[in-house]
Amino acid sequence: MSGSPIITGLTVVFSIITLVVVMVPIVKVLPSRLEKRLYRQIAFHRDAAQSLSTAIARSQNDQEQQDRLAAQHEYHRSVLQRLTPSDVPAAETSRAVA
Fold it and tell me: What is the rounded CA–CA span in Å between residue 69 and residue 75?
């Protein structure tokens, strides 16, 4: 059942070429998509933390609301620290919660 070595060789070569043609665009596009996704996540969590800091400052009389907002702020701050450890200084975030 073995065919001609030339035919087998050509089949292998064209199979590899087909895989390369499919994989090259994926390899070129995937890193930029992942980077854009990371930037969107950072922007989202940064904006959420800023909004929550403002809301915490405005809710002076309601302690339960302040606790809920502080917990949400802490979550967004911790995610930001995971995504960009040097981007969120600890003194700035602790000052915003207080």
Answer: 10
